[in-house]
Amino acid sequence: YGGGAALGAAVVLQVLSLVRGSLTVNTMGALVGAAISFVLGYLALSKGNNLFVWHPILMTAGSVFACTAAIDTVKRRKSMAKASKRSWMVQLHWFLMDAALIAMGLGVLAIYANKNKPLAKHFTTAHSWLGLAGLALFVLNLMGGATTTLGPVFLCGKMKLLWTDVLHRTSGAAAYTCMMGAVLLGLYNRVVLLPDGWGGKFELPADWASPGKTWSYANLGGEVIVKSFMAAVLVVYLLAIFPSSNKISKPKVS
Prior knowledge:
The protein is mainly α.
């Protein structure tokens, strides 16, 4: 229920952001991300509702949709002349990131609980390593953004919503890239790097580049469907990172 509530909130927030701004290339990425999440969720649940299926559902929705929507809102603020509108978009960016964190956190819990194995047997694949790296960067970036925004409350009693930080933007881009890469790896194949678990020997399988051996191939409709999902995720990523205009629109003088 928590994951569903977070994703429902993300949808509402994205709709609210569209009310406050125009449609952009980045917005198209968020909309395609929402479509991917819905279709994948529908196909996954049509095969049965169990703990495992909520891992791909929540991780895809959190990263491919909610994170992309959050990137879109913070980019579209740049074209707004009024500070109040820019502040509103920044708040939506913040709330969307929170929704993404809830969804992805529950997605990690779902796969961890589903395996029911000792800790040393978890997180042994390339997919999990890239996903954990992205999630760690995401959390650190979110904490940094919250500190910059809420820190001034203790000094002057007011949040600082309008600010820019190269480190925040760069680490956010790195986190997003890792998470999208983890989604692609999770769809494409299963590469186990520590077959004996943590403490065992690192091994790169000879067939590490071969597709298959994943839940997606068995449940989403075969290779063509899986590769279509992968192509769509890549499109979302490219649309999300597409440079936005810094030009503030000004009313025409008649």
